[in-house]
Structure formats: C-alpha cells, structure tokens
Amino acid sequence: MRMMGGETWANIGSAAAGVMFFWAMFKQYFPHELRQPIEKYVRELVSLFYPYIHVTFHEYSSDGRFERSKLYIAIERYLAENSSNRAKRLKADVTYGSDALVFSMDDHEEVIDEFQNVKLWWSSSHTPPQRQTITVFPGEDEKRYYKLKFHKKNRELVTTTYLKHVLDEGKAIAVRTRQRKLYTNCKSEERSGRFRYQRMWSHVKFEHPSNFNTLAMDPIKKKEIINDLIKFSQSKDYYTQIGKAWKRGYLLYGPPGTGKSSMIAAMANLLEYDVYDLELTAVKDNTELRKLLIDMSSKSIVVIEDIDCSLDLTGQRKKKEEDKEKEKAKEKDPAKIMKPDDKDSKVTLSGLLNFIDGLWSASGGERIIIFTTNYVEKLDPALVRRGRMDKHVELSYCGFEAFKILAKNYMDLDSHSLFPTIEEKLKQVDMTPADVAENLMPKSEEDDAYSCLEGLVIALDKAKEDAIKLKAEKEAKQKKKEEEAEEVKKDGENAIAIGEEEVKQNGLASHD
Fold first, then answer.
1. pTM as predicted
2. Rounded to whole angstroms, how far apart are CA atoms 58 and 125?
C-alpha cells in the first residue's frame, strides 16, 4: 500500500511537472496572436469540468477614484473578525487613529467561511509592480485584492444574499470597533497607497467623560433632550419618507459657564458620534466650507461654538459703510486691489446657510449640527429659524435640582442639613453650574462635605452682595445719566428762552 501510494504521488508530480514545462514552452515560443485564442479555448474547456466560480474584489476600483473600495474595506473587516482565528498565517497592524491591534490573514492565505450550510473560500493576494521603481512611497503600483471561490450551484445565494451579508457585517463591525474622534479643521497633504490627497481635518481621540447622568440641569429638560436624540438616531426611514436630509440642528444658548460644552460631549457619548469642532475663522471661503462638509463622516456632531463671535454673520447682512471705506482705501492705494488680505475668512451668511440645510447638507447623513452662543439676541433670525436650528435649548443658571446632581457627583450626597439653606439662596442669586461645582470641589485633604457646602453658602451670600452692589451702581449711573440729561434739557430750554427774548428785543428796536 505504501509503495502504491508513493508511486501514485510520483506519477502525479511528474504529470504536474510536464504540464508546467509544456505551459512554459507554450508561452515562450508561441506568438501572441496564436496564444490568445488557444488560451481562450483552454479556459472554456476547463470551465466545463471545473465546478467553481471565482470573484475578485480589488482594493481600488478601475474608474480612477482615489479612495479605497468600500466593499474591499467591508470584506477586510468581516474577515478580520470572522476568519482570522482559522488562518495559519496572519499579519498584524494598528488601525489609523487608534491603538487597537487588528489581525488579518496574510497574503496567499486561504480561509473557509460558512453561510447557510454553504462553504466559501476567501484568499488574499496582490499583484506586484510591473516595473521596478525607486520611490519614497513603497508599494505605489502594487494592487491588492481578495478572491472569493464558491461552487457554481450557489451562484444566486452568493450574489444576492451572502455578499450583502458581508457588506452589512463589515459596516456593523466598523461601528462597534471604531475609536471615536474629535476633529478640527486643517489643511495638509497626505498619501494613501498610490494616491496623494488633501486632508481637511486633523483629529485626536474623543475621551471627554461628560454624560447626561453627570450633567447639571433640570431633569425634565434633560429627559426631553435624550428622547429627542434617540428618536433622531432611529429615524432614517422617517426622514427619507418626508423628504428631508437626515440631520438635526441644535442651538445651545445661555450665560458662560452653564454647561454648553459639557452638553455637546454628553450628546456625543450618548449617540457614540464623532465630534467635528469647526473653526469658521480658519475657513478661507464658501467653497472650502463645502469641502469640509463633504469630508465629514456620518454619525457625527458638527459644532460651531460662539457663533456670534466666529464671523461677522449677524445683524445687517450688507455693511454698506464698511464697503465704502474699503473702496476709498483702494482708490488711495491701488496696490491693495492686487494684494487682497488672504487672512480674512470670506465665508458668508449665505454660504453658512447652505452648509446647514442646502443641497450639500444631505451628504453623509445622520448628522447633528450645533451652534452655541452666549447672546442669542445677536444672531441673525435666518440662521436660527426652525428647520435650520430645529431645537433651541436654553442652559441657564443653577437651580436646586441641578445643584443636587452636582452634590451627588462631587460629594456623593443625596441630602444634607445645609440643602434647604442652599435651595433658598439659589432662588435669590444667579450662579452658574460651573461656579457651584467649583465651590463643591475639595481644595485640600481637610475639606469634607460640610466645609464644601458651607463654602458654597458663603459664596452665594457674597454673590448676592455683589449683585446688590452692582445693581446699586447701575441705578446710580442711570440716575446720574438721567440728571445730566435733565440738566442738558434745562440748559437747552434756557438757551431757547434767551434766544427768543433776544429776537423779541431786536424786533422792538428795529420797529422804533
């Protein structure tokens, strides 16, 4: 039996060597014109007896686009999670922007996947460069791909169901494993594979600890915001049905220190969205603003903080006097016409409105746009109308319910003998949650709950005294202003009376 087995393998090896020798001779000595039709007929002959179908998925499509194929990326994620434990040869890498170590099957490795009791074979490979080049970017001409092999009787299952399953799973894995990021707008050149592109955003890990449990605000208003956010994240089909882009605008307004930034972080942590902190003053013009929008991912929150200070977009839309001054300056110095100031942002109110709810705003989907301001009355009504900023949220001074949340967060207290005193004083004076929290934070090892609460009572008393003093000063200034105005009025009336008397005297004199 062993002898027969050895002879069989020897015969198979000899046959394989003969076929390879014949194929090498065929490719070397047969002209290309004859070789092509022969290869065609050989492939057709083999296909009659070979029961498997091969499908290739390239990393980059052949239509010249500079981005990696979404299907290739989905397959890569799917295989990394579902097939890496069955592969014998693996390659490891750290995902961009994350410290997570990811394993995937190495080149020329094959793994078996099973779907609805059907076996499928995946392999990873690459085509080496056609020419030898010296470049600082290795693998520039290298083409990577995945190959799927399955029995031809399962063709319909694979093309209609299995590949959709792989794509959906790849997207779901990306959402589960992604490291959320905090972006800021920038401009720099980067290279990915064979292509160079301009990166519009830079980022760091988003690690802000704020959440709605720690957010100091009225519980009823908090619950309303949470429900609104969750409903939005689950309403993709509804937005499609009513013909609106899947986005929602929030206007957060209130005095400084009332928790606008903490609210944004809590929203991002609740929905597990990335955050894009858009600095409008760094945006050159409306065209660049659109490019930034296109370069944003879905499942994201776009934040423009202090919108009233970002650019002069509020109030009058046309500053005629300023334009006239610029024209006069150009007439005096013609060189200014040839050398415009490139440092100033040319973003207009119209460009920002198109960014929020124009045609380009529908790109990406599942996006929340947030404006913050300390002075809502300064904003142009067109900027904050419903439909652009769908929900207006006022973040005001600290009330007793917000204080109890802070006391629980900072000192793990649900009640205390000083709570009634603090409740009464919070009704008499305006203090932001940030100031309350600062007084509740221990400053030394000797500080305990009583000393911190006592310090808050003292701070509230001082704030009340300061408020009374400030009110008195304002009233005094107002009274002084009114007295001065009254004196000016009296002086004017006296001057008019004197003038009338002089006119009267002059008239009598001329009559005589």
1. 0.67
2. 10
The SS3 call for residue 417 is coil
Q: Which two tokens stand for residue 78?
A: 């799917």
- The rounded distance, in Å, linking the Cα atoms of 83 and 67 is 25
Identify the bridge partners of residue 150 per DSSP, sorted by sequence position. Answer: 53
Q: How far is CA 62 from the centre of its chain?
A: 30
Q: How far is CA 220 from the centre of its chain?
A: 28
DSSP H stretches of helix in 278-334: 286-294, 307-310, 320-332
Q: Which residues pair with 184 in a beta bridge?
A: 202, 277
pLDDT per residue as tens, the chain (512 positions)? 344 455 655 555 565 566 566 666 656 666 666 666 666 666 666 666 678 888 999 887 765 555 678 888 888 888 887 766 666 676 766 555 455 566 667 777 788 888 999 999 998 887 766 555 554 444 445 678 889 999 989 999 999 999 999 998 888 887 777 788 999 987 655 554 544 546 688 889 898 999 999 999 989 999 999 999 999 999 999 998 998 889 999 999 999 989 999 999 999 999 999 999 999 888 888 888 888 888 888 889 999 998 888 766 554 444 545 555 556 555 555 544 444 444 567 888 888 888 887 777 777 788 999 999 998 888 888 888 887 889 999 999 999 999 999 999 999 999 999 999 999 999 999 999 999 999 999 988 888 999 999 999 999 999 999 888 988 888 888 888 888 888 888 877 777 777 777 777 776 666 55
3-state secondary structure of 254: coil
Pairwise CA distance, residues 503 & 494, whole Å: 14
434, 473 Cβ separation under 8 angstroms: no
Structural element, H or E, at residue 419: helix 419-428
Spatial distance between the Cα atoms of 35 and 37, rounded to a whole number of angstroms? 6
* Cβ atoms of residues 235 and 326 within 8 Å: no
**Contacts (Cβ under 8 Å, ≥6 apart) of 110:** 121, 122, 123
d(CA 392, CA 384): 9
In angstroms, the Cα distances linking 126 to 54, 102, 146 are 15, 20, 8
